[in-house]
Amino acid sequence: MSRNTKINILLLVVVAALAVLPLALGLGDHKEEPFTGADGEAETAITEIQPDYEPWFSPLYEPPSGEIESALFSLQAALGAGVLAYYFGLRRGRRQGEERALERVGGAESAAGATAEESPAERS
User: Fold this and answer.
1) C-alpha span between 63 and 70 (Å, rounded)
2) Which of 61, 85, 89, 115 is the 20 to 30 Å CA partner of 46?
3) pTM of the complete model beyond 0.85
């Protein structure tokens, strides 16, 4: 196995462990909703510290249910992943194109150089 393959496998194992370990270890079992987002946790903490706190602004759009909110969040994540994949693919394609162009130019120059070196020898 190559070094890159080993690194990729190690990264996949780490990501899988990050996903499975909280569930396997029972983290969050003491909470009513164990895996709520940071926004919900922050709201709870703020109201415990200062019950009369009022937010500075309200959301522009409040989804009618948690499922729709999750779907919109997933859509946002998918769009972001698509933009990043497009960017990295574009960069890789450009780099490969430049390498191919340099190989063609280098091959053409060496062929032209060989022809130029033979020409004076043939003349004498």
Assistant:
1) 9
2) 61
3) no
